[in-house]
Design goal:
The complex is a heterodimer of chains A (377) and B (262). Chain A is 43% helix and 10% strand. Chain A has 17 helices and eight strands. The longest helix of chain B has 17 residues. With 262 residues, chain B is of the alpha/beta class. The chains are: A alpha/beta (377), B alpha/beta (262).
């Protein structure tokens, strides 16, 4: 047994697994794929299997939603074994072209969407925005996220946040066009070398700002900066924390009524990974006219939308119903007018599912900030 | 098998807002993303596949500024031994014949079996450098290659022709081939590999190092003059034909006859 394999076995504590099956029993994607993380853990113990295991298409079905980790009685993180196997494949270079392109784009342009770095702030054109200056004191440093900054369907999330912050008189500043991918998805795609590099570069960049804390729009950025940047000694919060504070302190007025039935979908990277459940619900309850509904599968049991874990760049071969479509059907059955989310990936998957199901006329998918902006008038 | 692969760093203009700059002869590239020329990336992969199957050595050649080093290092991480970057503002990169002359001067200094280029660059799309390079080197060439088979002292390639035809060509080595996209699946260069590739040789040369005189490769000595660049005017003249399917077909047929299309 060589040292590299020993380290894989030790790193993931594979021998600590008691094969109880709580992971597979809760894994949401087993409803539509053959992924069996219990088998993957068992077979990965054999050093000779690692190469073969890394070539299994199944390892790319994992959305890194963390249900397996939440349910594991031994405190293991089965999803990390799958990411570890992806790492073996990435090191060989033989990943699918969509994954290759996303990773090369992060390496060269600082975002996974093959967009020029120079256009990162285009979403803010015509808006009154404050850009933070390195060394100048700012209370809230805003990290926008690559997907929100570049996807025309999502740019309104950033615009709405800025408008709400301006209205509430919040002291904030954007990281600006130097903002570079947090690399949550780089990690999930198994590019450990690039992830280490980005953590180092981003830590250096962000430490240069004299900020009390950093506010992220995406739960993926939030979770990554909070849990995987050991040298970034800065408080990290999600925007739902900041908005909740503003509402609780009476700094943000919501004069307009939004007469809608709204059900909140817990993003995995906010909920299961970081136990943030109450803030989004608190915000929605403050909006006059909003009736807050709840899914049967909520909070720790929330159904993953399949947007994370690098799934934006890896299509699952299964043609069975997508989990996002299941979620949309559940929201419709509840009679919701709005399926509210607080994550850009969730918006993309759930909005696609809404259209695939043909429910656009009766229901919409919206970020909490859209509802908030409407209520703030 | 000693192989040279010519690569170029180009802007990605597929979704970019392209604007002509003040000179009228170039574009404003300040808002572009850059990367290895797509077809060159396939040439890199093909060379690495040949090396993996039969052994050999790969040297990358690139004309361009220091910014090009990133695509050179990424290529080296995939499997090359060394690279040469030619940086000299006197080189007229708008003339493919002059570009070929510069590349040939770098290759001629060494023994070689096979030279590969992408079939075209994404920025100028001349499709000329590869074939001109073969002329400069005095060797055979095949353009738009979709498959490569190495034989004993020879090479057998399939070329993509117009109309969906494929031509099979056998040539003696040394030779130059220009690689069409889709011939393989270019691999990913992991960052750890790129860091490792920092140790590989990357020489930066100027015209004097290549024994070239300025007039041979500068704009003054070019037989190509770029007059101007302009964005084609977008015009719309579509007519939507109404009626039942039979009526539509009749109206369409009359229009085609009158218009001289039938």
């Amino acid at each position: 047994m060589n040292s590299e394999v020993r380290s894989f076995l030790e790193k993931h504590d594979l021998l600590g697994c008691v094969q109880c099956g709580r992971c597979t029993g809760g894994c949401p994607v087993t409803a539509r794929t053959d992924l069996n993380v219990r088998r993957v853990i068992y077979e990965s113990i054999d050093e000779k299997m690692l190469d073969k295991m890394s070539k299994l298409p199944d390892i790319w079905d994992c959305t890194t939603c963390s249900t397996c980790a939440v349910r594991c009685p031994k405190g293991l993180k089965p999803l990390e074994v799958l990411i570890g196997l992806r790492e073996v494949l990435v090191e060989s270079g033989m990943v699918q072209s969509t994954v290759r392109d996303a990773l090369e784009s992060v390496f060269q342009e600082g975002n996974p969407w093959k967009k020029p770095r120079a256009t990162r702030l285009d979403w803010a054109e015509g808006l009154e925005v404050k850009i933070a200056e390195p060394g100048e004191k700012v209370e809230n440093l805003i990290f926008v996220c690559c997907t929100v900054a570049y996807d025309p369907k999502l740019q309104d999330i950033a615009r709405n946040l800025v408008k709400v912050l301006n209205k509430a008189g919040v002291d904030y500043g954007l990281v600006g066009d130097g903002e570079t991918c947090c690399s949550s998805e780089v990690y999930n795609l198994g590019e450990a070398g690039l992830f280490e590099m980005m953590v180092e570069d981003n830590t250096e960049l962000l430490k240069g700002f004299a900020a009390d804390r950093m506010v992220t729009i995406s739960p993926h950025c939030y979770s990554t900066f909070k849990n995987q940047y050991p040298l970034l000694k800065m408080e990290i919060v999600h925007y739902t924390h900041l908005i909740s504070e503003l509402l609780a302190e009476g700094k943000l007025a919501l004069p307009k009524e939004v007469s809608k039935k709204v059900v909140f979908h817990d993003p995995c990277y906010l909920g299961k990974k970081n136990n943030v459940f109450e803030e989004p619900r608190f915000i929605l309850k403050q909006v006059p006219g909003v009736e807050v509904l709840e899914f049967e599968r909520k909070k720790e049991r929330s159904l993953c939308c399949e947007g994370g874990g690098g799934k934006m760049w890896v299509e699952t071969e299964s043609r069975k119903e997508r989990l996002a479509e299941t979620r949309i059907k559940d929201a419709r059955a509840l009679g919701a007018d709005v399926l509210a989310v607080a994550c850009p990936f969730c918006i993309l998957t759930l909005d696609d599912a809404l259209k695939a199901k043909g429910f656009e006329e009766e229901m919409k998918v919206a970020d909490i900030l859209e509802i908030l902006h409407e209520a703030a008038g | 098998m000693k192989m040279f692969v010519c690569i170029k760093r180009v802007p990605d203009t597929s979704e970019a807002d392209v604007k002509i700059d003040q000179t009228g002869k170039s574009v404003d590239s300040s808002r572009f993303s850059f990367g290895i020329n797509d077809a060159d990336n396939y040439a890199v992969e093909e060379a690495v596949l040949i090396k993996e199957a039969r052994g050999g050595e790969i040297k990358f050649l690139c004309i361009g500024p220091k910014d090009s080093d990133v695509v050179i290092r990424m290529s080296l991480a995939k499997g090359g031994e060394s690279a040469v970057r030619i940086e000299d503002p006197r080189i007229n990169q708008k003339d493919p014949l002059q570009v070929a002359k510069v590349l040939a001067a770098a290759i001629k200094r060494e023994q070689f079996d096979l030279v590969m280029t992408g079939c075209m660059s994404a920025d100028d799309s001349n499709m000329s450098v590869g074939v001109a390079l073969a002329e400069e080197l005095g060797v055979s060439h095949a353009a738009m290659v979709k498959s490569v088979e190495i034989l004993d002292g020879k090479i057998k390639v399939k070329r993509e022709l117009e109309g969906g035809l494929t031509e099979v060509v056998e040539m003696s080595l040394p030779a130059v081939i220009t690689i069409q996209t889709g011939i393989n699946v270019p691999r990913y260069a992991p960052v750890r590999g790129i860091r490792e590739a920092q140790k590989k040789e990357l020489k930066v040369l100027k015209l004097e190092d290549l024994g070239l005189a300025e007039e041979e490769v500068s704009e003054a000595g070019s037989r190509v003059e770029l007059m101007k660049l302009y964005i084609p005017v977008v015009a719309s003249n579509a007519e939507m034909i109404q009626g039942t399917p039979d009526e539509k077909a009749e109206i369409m047929a009359v229009k085609m006859v009158k218009g001289g299309l039938l």
